[in-house]
């Protein structure tokens, strides 16, 4: 459902966008319009870097520096954080400029800013039923109702019944591309934007993820067909 993390470099294309976790993990995309401001990959939440988020990350680094000076964290651990932040700092400097970063730091409200937070996977959610068929997902009536509410819109945009409702795949969930949108919805989730390319899943903490339509070309993927000889 999401791209894989990638290390930020200051030599990335000018039109690329950097997403950063609170632990300073990073990944870069040139297709930022396909993603929400916050994106979760596995158990890590990332946010698209902007001057305000940079100011928050900088404030965390100042706290980490104080913690290192008093022995609360190790020097090696702090050096690793500093190395990661320096790369992010250079990227922000190249994209936003020094004046914008200074202005964001001066006007930053520490108590008012809410960083991205990963949504934990519910431990009591049964993904597969207690039966020999281990490739079938059990979905709740609430999840099915969410899909029902956007079904007609989705069909009009080219989504199929299988891409929305299929609960059985050739591989065990979540492997493969057989499982429909309904399998990825959990209690408390909402559905946001519905487009030909993707359907937005809004988690209870307002982190936004996207379920991509496997039957259409995505902006970063093009199918190549072999010409008959």
End-to-end Cα distance, whole Å, is 36 Å
The share of residues in extended strands comes to 5-15%
Uncertain stretches: 1-10, 122-132, 225-229
How many domains, as an integer? 2
Helix content: 25-40%
Average of the residue pLDDT scores? 80
Strand order of the largest sheet: 2-1-4-3
Q: Could you tell me the radius of gyration in angstroms?
A: 21 Å
Q: Based on DSSP secondary structure assignment, what is the total number of beta strands?
A: 7
Give the CA-based shape: elongated
Helix count from the secondary structure assignment: 5
Summarize the main sheet: 4 strands, antiparallel
Order of helices and strands: EEEEHHHHHEEE
Class by alpha and beta content:
alpha+beta
Description:
The protein is of the alpha+beta class and 229 residues long. It has two domains: 17-106, no CATH class; 141-212, no CATH class. The chain has helices at 51-69, 75-96, 98-106, 141-156, 161-165, and strands at 17-21, 26-29, 38-41, 44-48, 190-194, 198-202, 208-212. A four-stranded antiparallel sheet has the order 2-1-4-3, with no helix packed on it. Strand 3 (38-41) and strand 4 (44-48) form a beta hairpin. The protein is elongated. The relative contact order is 0.14. Residues 1-10, 122-132 and 225-229 have low confidence and may be disordered.
């Amino acid at each position: 459902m999401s791209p894989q993390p990638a290390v930020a470099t200051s030599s990335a294309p000018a039109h690329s966008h950097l997403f950063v976790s609170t632990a300073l993990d990073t990944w870069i995309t040139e297709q930022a319009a396909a993603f929400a401001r916050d994106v979760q990959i596995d158990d890590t939440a990332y946010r698209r870097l902007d001057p305000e988020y940079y100011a928050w990350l900088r404030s965390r680094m100042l706290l980490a520096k104080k913690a290192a000076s008093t022995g609360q964290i190790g020097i090696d651990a702090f050096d690793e954080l500093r190395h990661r932040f320096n790369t992010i700092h250079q990227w922000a400097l190249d994209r936003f400029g020094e004046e914008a970063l200074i202005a964001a730091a001066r006007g930053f409200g520490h108590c008012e800013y809410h960083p991205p937070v990963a949504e934990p996977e519910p431990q009591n959610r049964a993904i597969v039923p207690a039966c020999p068929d281990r490739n079938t997902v059990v979905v709740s009536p609430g999840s099915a109702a969410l899909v029902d509410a956007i079904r007609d819109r989705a069909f009009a945009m080219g989504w199929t019944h299988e891409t929305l409702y299929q609960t059985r795949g050739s591989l065990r969930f979540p492997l493969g591309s057989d499982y429909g949108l309904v399998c990825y919805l959990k209690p408390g989730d909402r559905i946001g934007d519905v487009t030909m390319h993707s359907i937005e899943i809004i988690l209870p903490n307002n982190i936004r993820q996207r379920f991509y339509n496997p039957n259409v070309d995505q902006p970063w993927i093009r199918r190549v067909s072999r010409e008959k000889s």
